[in-house]
From TrEMBL:
This is LysR family transcriptional regulator. Residues 11-63 form the HTH lysR-type domain. Signal peptide: none annotated. The lineage of its organism: Bacteria, Pseudomonadati, Pseudomonadota, Gammaproteobacteria, Lysobacterales. It comes from the Bacteria. GO terms for molecular function: DNA binding; DNA-binding transcription factor activity. Belongs to the LysR transcriptional regulatory family. Keywords: DNA-binding, Transcription, Transcription regulation.
């Protein structure tokens, strides 16, 4: 018999026979037939070249060689079982270092206010948060998971859609007080609109308005072009101009009056939120826990 997993299994059978007192009870404990137990002991004795058990019609006793063997391997087998149980627990534990890459606006306005509760729930977890609009090289940078808005481009990354959020047009009360509120999307031509740069084309995104299945594109202008969503949010709240933003990121600001939604009947466009993983293997518990956390807080927002 080769010195492989079968040897360990046969040793476990021997210890079970000793602990239970006979082949029948050992078979019940192991989920084997009595003949299966007998064959395992026979293979072990043949492999070691010694008799380990003295069998009678009434009982089973260890030989001297068997006694020495059980005394040596019994604690080892117990240790292996305990290690396996511990490993199984570790495999499901949310622990270790988690490096995440987040959209700046999502990080600042959605994740950051709720992160303390998440870390308190998982005290063995350490996190590093990288914020930027571009996805970047997750594998090269050692990123465990990234969360971004928008339809993913084809890549080797695993993309999981988390939810959809509406695209809103918003302004601060101070901007409306100074410049008035546009009544229709076409009125934006005479307002300061904060432009956001498309990282793919490096040009400003078009301003689209979706209503009843129809899409209207409106030409807008403004003195500011930004490439960071959190900066755009800060400028908008400060009254610098009108912006198009994602509802999930500004729901609190709308609820407490820092921002006002414009054209609510033209806000049917949906923008997806995705989680990206660098591997197609089963995501570890710390990644799954963080993604579940993002979904929960985003849906509440």
């Amino acid at each position: 018999m080769p010195n492989d997993g079968r040897l360990l299994g046969n040793l476990s059978v021997l210890v079970s026979v000793v602990e239970t007192g006979n082949f029948a009870r050992a078979a019940d404990a192991l989920g084997l037939s009595p003949s299966g137990v007998s064959r395992a002991i026979g293979r072990l004795e043949a492999h070691l070249g010694v008799r380990l058990l003295q069998r009678t019609t009434r009982s089973v006793h260890l030989t001297d060689e068997g006694q020495r063997l059980v005394e040596q391997v019994g604690p080892l087998l117990t240790g292996i079982e305990e290690a396996a149980v511990s490993a199984a627990g570790d495999a499901q534990a949310v622990r270790g270092r988690l490096r995440v890459s987040l959209d700046p606006m999502f990080s600042r306005l959605v994740v950051a206010p709720k992160l303390a509760a998440f870390l308190a729930q998982h005290p063995q977890l350490e996190m590093e948060i990288v914020t930027r609009d571009e996805l970047g090289d997750l594998i090269g940078e050692g990123i465990d998971v990234a969360v971004r808005f928008g339809v993913p481009e084809a890549s080797s990354l695993v993309a999981r859609k988390l939810l959809d959020t509406r695209v809103l047009t918003v302004a601060a009360p101070s901007y409306i007080a100074a410049h008035g509120a546009p009544r229709t999307p076409k009125d934006l031509a005479s307002h300061d609109c904060i432009q956001f740069r498309d990282p793919a084309t490096r040009r400003p995104y078009d301003w689209e308005f979706h209503r009843k299945g129809k899409v209207t594109t409106v030409a807008t202008k403004g003195p500011l072009l930004v490439a960071d969503s959190a900066t755009m949010y800060g400028l908008c709240v400060a009254g610098t101009g009108i912006a198009q933003v994602l509802e999930v990121s500004v729901r609190d600001a709308l609820d407490d009056g820092r921002l006002v939604e414009l054209f609510p009947d033209h806000a049917e466009e949906l923008f997806p939120l995705y989680a990206f993983y660098p591997s197609r293997r089963h995501a570890p518990p710390k990644v799954r826990a963080f993604v579940d956390f993002c979904v929960a807080i985003a849906r509440r927002a």
